[in-house]
Backbone:
């Protein structure tokens, strides 16, 4: 069975602090994809990143960075110098892979509050 | 703008009534998914289509729920005899190899 765990229900930081959102996944498949989505108060899920199971390179995009470690089945997301606009619920998701891109298994989300 | 649209954005109905939601995916995506999200939870898979074929249905999709995707374009999700437990956000997504692109959702409230 597939499972995604986001143990942090809610995190509050002050603007300009760095914050890391944890994601731990479970699957026996060797080919899979991991995703992060942002859900602002408006409700729409915004795609942030996709990572496949064969690519453990960390990725940086502006203030965002992702750390994928297969050894610990984790795919953590760090926001550097957080801003108020980063306040949202962040979801980690798993999708089994191969050529067919299948349904997502979502974690329960981490609500990030960035205070000015 | 993700390109996936859903209508209506909000729906309030009385218990026992039928409701129908529509999703228009990104035109070049042949896969379309429906998810349900309740408060404080991540989205849960309901069903998906490849073109017009419905290939998988979750056990969450009781016989009161039906989804269609005629001609492989837009999709509809109908809930018959709504119950208060059906209150949730219903999300539609279409997928490319780069990821899933979600619509803004339809928030259903059953009174």
Residues:
């Amino acid at each position: 069975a597939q499972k995604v765990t986001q143990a942090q229900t809610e995190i509050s930081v002050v603007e300009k602090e760095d914050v890391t959102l944890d994601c731990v996944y479970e699957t026996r498949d060797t080919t899979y994809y991991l995703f992060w989505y942002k859900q602002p108060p408006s409700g729409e899920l915004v795609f942030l990143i996709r990572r496949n199971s064969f690519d453990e390179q960390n990725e940086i995009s502006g203030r965002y960075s992702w750390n994928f470690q297969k050894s610990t089945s984790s795919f953590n997301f760090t926001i550097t110098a957080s801003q108020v606009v980063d306040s949202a619920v962040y979801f980690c998701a798993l999708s089994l892979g191969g050529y067919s891109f299948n349904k997502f298994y979502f974690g329960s989300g981490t609500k990030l509050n960035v205070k000015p | 703008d993700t390109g996936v649209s859903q209508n209506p954005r909000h729906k309030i109905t009385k218990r026992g009534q039928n409701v129908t939601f529509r999703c228009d995916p990104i035109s070049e995506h042949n896969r379309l998914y429906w998810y349900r999200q309740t408060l404080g939870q991540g989205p849960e898979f309901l069903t998906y289509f490849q073109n017009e074929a419905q290939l998988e249905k979750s056990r969450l999709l009781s016989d009161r729920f039906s989804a269609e995707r005629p001609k492989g374009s837009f999709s509809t999700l109908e809930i018959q005899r709504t119950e208060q437990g059906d209150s949730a956000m219903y999300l539609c997504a279409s997928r490319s190899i780069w990821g899933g692109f979600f619509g803004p959702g339809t928030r259903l409230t059953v009174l």
User: Anything to note?
Assistant: The mean pLDDT of chain B is 91. The radius of gyration of chain B is 13 Å. The interface with chain A takes residues 2, 31, 33, 35, 40-45, 48, 56, 89, 91, 93, 95, 97-105, 107 of chain B (CB under 8 Å).
